[in-house]
Each structure stands twice: as C-alpha cells, then as structure tokens.
UniProtKB/TrEMBL annotation:
It comes from the Eukaryota. GO terms for molecular function: serine-type endopeptidase activity. Belongs to the peptidase S8 family. Residues 184-223 are annotated as: Disordered. Residues 28-110 form the Inhibitor I9 domain. Residues 650-736 form the Subtilisin-like protease fibronectin type-III domain. This is Uncharacterized protein.
Length: 739
C-alpha cells in the first residue's frame, strides 16, 4: 500500500512568522491529516463540500467570494488550499478536523558525460554521456514524474523501444503534449502523464488562476533538463554547438516519466507541489525527485512506498545551509565530473594560460588585443575597488573599448553574468575574471570572449600587465577536456551540513554530478550546461530507478541505504574527495560520498528505516502526541522519555551524534541491518573484530557502536564503519560533535 504521511510544517512555519498581513488575504494550505487507509477517496465531491462549509465559518459573509478552494487534497492525505487572512487561518487551525494551517509559500528551483564518469568510476558499464531533470516524480523501469513540465518533442523523451504501460500504473496516459486536456491513452509511451499547470493563488485576490494558461509545457528549461538526466532516452551525436559531443542519455533510459507541472517562471507554490505529490503517489510512481528549494515547508514530510530524492540547496560553502534534511528524504549534494570546458588565454609574452569557460570566441592566438586591468579602466569618481570588480557603471568606455578587461571576484554580489554585461556595455573585446572558487563551474558567455582563472594564473596576468607598456592578449574559443583530474570535487555552491532540521541526522546523504551537466532543452534555448544540486538530484533519482528495476522488491529505505553505503569517498586519482579549496571533504559536504550505481546493486546488507522510526523521530523532535497521531492515521504513542538526543538511534544508514559530552560515559548507538546477500553470510567490521552472521533463519542482526569523547577535541569528528563479507561491503559514515 502506498501511504503518504503528509506535511508537518505547522511546527516549522508558524503563522506568527508569516509575512502575510493579518488583514490582507493570502494563500494558505490547510492540512487535515493522513487518509484513513491511504487509498483514493471514493467521493471527492463530499470533501470539497465540507471544505467550503469550513471556509464559510471563518470568512465574513460580505467576502463570500473568497469561499473558494484552490486545491483539494483527498488521495494520499486530506486538506485543501485557500485564500485567507492570518486571523482567519488562526481560527481555522482550531477547527476539530484541522491539524495545521500554514502559508502557501513560493519556492525556488535549485538550479553528457556525468553518467559515463560514474560508470567509469564504478557504475554499470552502459556507456554514454549525461542529461538532467528538475522536479521529477519518477518511476523506475515503469514510471517517473516531473513537476516543472517538459518539452516532450525532445529526442530524450522518444517512445522508441518503450514497452507496454504496466498495469499497476493508475494514472492516465497521453501522447498529446500540446493540448491542455491530455486524456488520450497510449499503449506505449515514455511520458505517461503531463497535466497542465495547477492553479496558482494570486495573493490578496479572491480567485486562483492558471499561470501559463494551464499549458503542460516547460517554458524555462529546468524540467526538461532534469527529466532527461534521470530518465532520458539514448540520443546519439548530442553536443552543445560541437562541445562535449557524444551519446546523451539519462540514468534509467527505460523508465517512464509522469510529469506534474507545479512550477512557473515565478517559482513553485507549495500548494501546487503538494497537489503534484498527492497525484503522483496516487497514480503509482515509485520515485520522486524534487529539485526545488523546499526549505522548512516540506522538512517534515515523508512518503512510504515512494523514494523521495531532493536537492540539498545551492547556498554553500557555508555550514548549516543544507535543506530538505528530514530523514525520510534522500538529500543530494553536488560534485564535479571529469570533464571541464577550457578557454585558453594567450598573452603577448608568449605564455598560454588555461582558463575555464564556455565561449565561442572568434579570437585567435595570432591576433592579440589590448589588455587592461579593470581598476585602470575606472570611470571618473569611481573607486578602484568597484572597477576592479566590474561593478555596473564602473568602467570608462573610452578606456575599455576594444580591450580585454581583467576583473577580480572580491565582491560575490557582482556575479559573472553582471561582469560580462558590464564589460560588453563598455565596448570591451573580452573579459578575464580572476576567481579561485567559481572557476570550477563553467560560465557560458555565448560568443563574447570570456575566461576565468584562479589566483595563480591571475597573478601571472597582472604581473604581465605591469611589465609592459602595451599588454596584449587573446581569449581562445572553448574546448572540452575529458579525463580531467581530480574528480569528483565537491561543488563550491553545494549546501553543507549539519542539517538545519536537526544535527542528529547526518545531511546531506549522498553526492552526485551537478557541475556543467548537458541535457535536453526547450526551444529556442540551446541547452547549455547547467550546474546546481538540481542537476545532482536527478542523477540519484535515475540511479535509484535503475536499482529499483534490478531489485523491484526493495523498499525505499533499502534503496536509500544501498546507495549510501556503497558510495565512494575516493576521487579518480585514488585520494579522498576534496572541496574546491583543496581540503579533504567531510561528510557534511559530500554525505556518504559519490554515488556508485553498480556497487549499489549488491551492498550485502541494508539499513531498513521503518515508518515507526520516522514517527519516533517526530516524537523525539518535540511534536505533540495529538498531531503525530493525526498524521499517522491511527494510534501511535510516543515514548515517555522522548528527547532530541534519541534521534541518533533511529535506524538510519549513517550516524550523527549532535552533542557528545566528554565528561559523561561513552554514547552508545544501535543499528539493525538486513541481509540482502547470500543466505549464509558473515560480515566483519574493519574497525574491530565483531562479526555479523546470518543464516537461513535470520535475515537481521543488530550491532552497537560507542563514541567516547574524553580524548577528543571540541567540534565535529568524522569516521566510518565498514561491514564486508569479502565480496560485498557496506560503509556507514558518522559525524560526532564533541561539546
């Protein structure tokens, strides 16, 4: 049975902190608890009537036009969305049938060699390049789903070779991607379902509207890009204007997509995402991939029977920035792959420096252009600091016109795109940016000559400028360089742990390619490389789809465990994965490590996290018993001694101890593993002599690990425990904070 334990965001997004005025109506979501049996409600019309009656009790009669339900949730959980004032929302939250009422927030998207790179490192030897997906609700070997829409004519969504739609698919099928009413049935279809965009609350208005006229099409490219990464069909001779030429495909090309458009150019309303999740789970998807900044709105969601994969966010490299950090979510960090886009710089003294960018410059090494430092091209009365950072309006066109300008990145508020526009506006013939961090993420400047270098190369350029009266240079068009080392590297933008929800769950969970990913695009866009945890998320969803097709009986927690415990912490030169700063990456940066699709097929043992573990998490986290019972859809009693410290003990594939007091006795944490390998097997731990033995009568075994901080310094310490039978191995990473 597919069962959704719906949002518990009432404790995380209180009405008191809402930005909506008490008197001004705004969009809200009313959550009424779990469906009693997790099945589709037989008479949704009765639910709508009761919702309208409920609204009529809090909305004044003279404003009766606001007695209007935007979305009605009645399949996997109960509730609705509506336009309310804060005062009305407070009154409604006291209704006997209501669990919580919270603002309907607008969330933001986290914005072809990656699969080949993963396969070369340890993945299935299927060959090919890579492609990506956005908010995708995804079904392995059967069905999948995306919530930002797609461009279905893309070759990545071809029906070629797709078998009959499985009988367990409960949603509609369609081959008609253009009409608003996609109700046609198809015996064989890559895209099973692509409904139009859900209604979007208009804020203080009394009506909801369908943004984009209800079109199911992707208009910004994010959904198409990410969907093709996870489940795109094989496309030969793919390239980006000749760069990165090869075979493009998703992680699970045989999987189907079910698309539920919940986003537009303005963002993704939480009520729309809820509706998409409600529909997707009820339709029968197996995997949900969400590349959206869900933040606290969805921190307390979990779905049973469906694996939920979410991007961890792009707010790195600072700690405590990872989002989507609830234990029932597989949270993904972003890494680089072994391909880079190189744009070389030729200096007048004959030196050739390697820069990083995607540009289709018409400059050559035989015809050089005047070269000037941005600070030397400052407009009158403009501080040198601003001109050296290419601030808007900081460059004097008479000084910069026809020259290649060199700018630094000492002010992160001025993005590379802004710098490029500033240089172009001043009539410069090119731009070189000196930045040690962002250079690993290729900026696409189109035909404008652009290159980015680190501090070492930047120092050489500045010294050259100061060494001659007529410095000159040329920025060559980009070339793609494969087998780049070291890789993977944790992307600088990838959000870091500890998790904001609780430090007793180690987040992010895992890492996947998210830098310079080429994928399908929407016309008239040209499908350039994209970077972000949005791009990493569908790599994990696609891998999970592949894994589910091989292990169809595995539960979501088993899939999650296999992916985490078989991840690697080594790069392609055999050393520990690093950050962009060259330091060894911690588990708060890369989770359990980089995914390994083939290794995950045979982990030997898995950690099964049951629904009771998630409910205990809510108890330990401090939710009230009444609310947990409503969400559980039945009787569930929290332990009397519930405390946040106990969260470390839920059966999770990794371990995190948020507070280890060195003055107290060692802290013991227990884990239970399930044998999914040979019936008779013995697993040895690499840290000490203990053994885990399984026989025909026993599939599960428990072990205890103790952490003693008496001899440790303050702060986080990291390590791992690996269980192996000599053929298969499963590594459980841990983070312990000594206070």
């Amino acid at each position: 049975m597919v069962w959704l334990l719906p949002l518990l965001s009432f404790a995380l997004a209180s009405l008191a902190t809402s930005a909506i005025s008490k008197q001004t109506p705004g969009p809200y979501v009313v959550y009424m608890g779990s469906s009693t049996d997790g099945a589709r409600e037989r008479n949704p019309g009765s639910s709508l009537s009761s919702h309208l009656e409920m609204l009529a009790t809090v909305i004044p009669r003279e404003e009766g036009e606001r007695v209007f339900v935007g979305h009605s949730y009645h399949k996997t959980f109960r509730g609705f969305s509506a336009v309310l004032t804060e005062a009305e929302a407070r009154r409604l939250s006291g209704h006997p049938g209501v669990v919580s009422v919270f603002p309907d927030r607008v969330l933001q998207l986290h914005t072809t060699r990656s699969w080949a790179f993963l396969e070369a490192e340890a993945g299935p030897g299927r060959g090919g390049s890579a492609v990506e997906l956005q908010t995708t609700f995804f079904c392995p070997a059967d069905n999948a789903a995306s919530s930002a829409g797609i461009w279905p004519e893309s070759p990545s969504f071809s029906d070629a070779g797709i078998g009959a739609v499985p009988s367990r698919w409960r949603g509609p099928a369609s081959r008609d991607p253009i009409s608003r009413n996609l109700t046609a049935t198809a015996d064989r279809s890559k895209v099973l379902h692509q409904p139009g965009e859900p209604l979007r609350p208009t804020g203080n208005a009394s009506r909801f509207r369908a943004d984009g006229a209800g079109s199911p099409r992707d208009t910004v490219g994010h959904g198409t890009h990410t969907a093709s990464t996870a489940a795109g069909a094989v496309v030969f001779n793919a390239s980006y204007y000749g760069l990165a030429r090869g075979v493009a495909k998703g992680g699970s090309p045989s999987s189907r997509l079910a698309v539920y458009k919940a986003c537009s150019a303005g963002g993704c309303a939480s009520s729309n995402i809820l509706k998409a999740i409600d529909d997707a789970v009820d339709d029968g998807v197996d995997i949900i991939s969400i590349s959206i900044g869900i933040s606290s709105i969805f921190q307390s969601d979990f779905l049973k029977g469906v694996l939920v994969v979410c991007s961890g966010g792009n707010d790195g490299p600072d700690p405590y920035t990872v989002i989507n950090s609830a234990p029932w979510i597989l949270t993904v960090a972003a890494s680089s792959i072994d391909r880079t886009f190189q744009s070389s710089i030729v200096l007048g003294n004959g030196n050739r420096l390697k820069g990083n960018a995607i540009n289709f410059s018409n400059q050559t090494g035989s015809r050089l252009h005047p070269l000037i430092f941005g600070g030397d091209a400052a407009s009158d009365f403009t501080p040198v600091f601003e001109a050296s950072n290419c601030y808007p309006g900081s460059l004097d066109s008479e000084k910069a016109a026809g020259k290649i300008v060199v700018c630094v990145e000492s002010d992160p508020t001025v993005t590379r795109r802004v710098k490029k526009l500033v240089a172009e506006g001043a009539g410069a013939s090119g731009l070189i940016v000196i930045d040690n961090v962002e250079k690993g993420v290729s900026f696409d400047s189109g035909t404008f000559p652009f290159s980015e270098v680190g501090k070492r190369a930047g120092t050489q350029i500045l010294r050259y400028i100061n060494s001659t009266r007529s410095p000159r240079a040329s920025i060559l068009p980009s070339t793609d360089v494969d087998l780049f080392k070291p890789a993977p590297v944790v992307a600088y933008f990838s959000s870091r742990g500890p998790g904001s929800l609780t430090e007793s769950i180690l987040k992010p969970d895992i890492m996947a390619p998210g830098v310079g990913i080429l994928a399908a695009s929407v016309p008239p866009a040209d499908g350039g490389p994209a970077s972000g945890t949005s791009m990493a998320c569908p790599h994990v969803a696609g891998t999970a789809a592949f894994l589910k097709s091989v292990r169809p009986r595995w539960t979501p927690s088993m899939l999650k465990s296999a992916l985490m415990t078989t991840a690697t912490t080594k790069n392609n030169v055999g050393r520990t994965i690093t950050s962009v700063f060259g330091e060894r990456a911690s588990y708060h940066e890369m989770g359990a490590g980089e995914i390994g699709p083939l290794r995950a097929v045979n982990p030997g043992i898995v950690y099964e996290t049951a629904a009771s573990d998630y409910l205990l998490f809510l108890c330990y986290h401090g939710y009230k018993q009444q609310l947990i019972s409503a969400v559980a859809g039945g009787n569930f009693t929290c332990p009397a001694n519930s405390s946040d410290e106990l969260i470390s003990g839920i059966n999770y594939p990794s371990i995190s101890v948020a507070k280890l007091d060195p003055r107290r006795p060692p802290r013991a944490v227990t884990r239970t593993v399930t044998n999914v390998g040979p019936v008779n097997a013995t697993y040895a731990a690499t840290v000490s002599p203990p053994r885990l033995s399984f026989s025909g009568r026993s599939r599960r075994a428990a072990y205890e690990v103790s952490f003693d901080g008496s001899a440790a310094g303050k702060g986080y310490h990291f390590g791992h425990i690996t269980w192996s039978d000599g053929v298969r191995s499963a590594r459980s990473v841990f983070a312990v904070n000594v206070i």
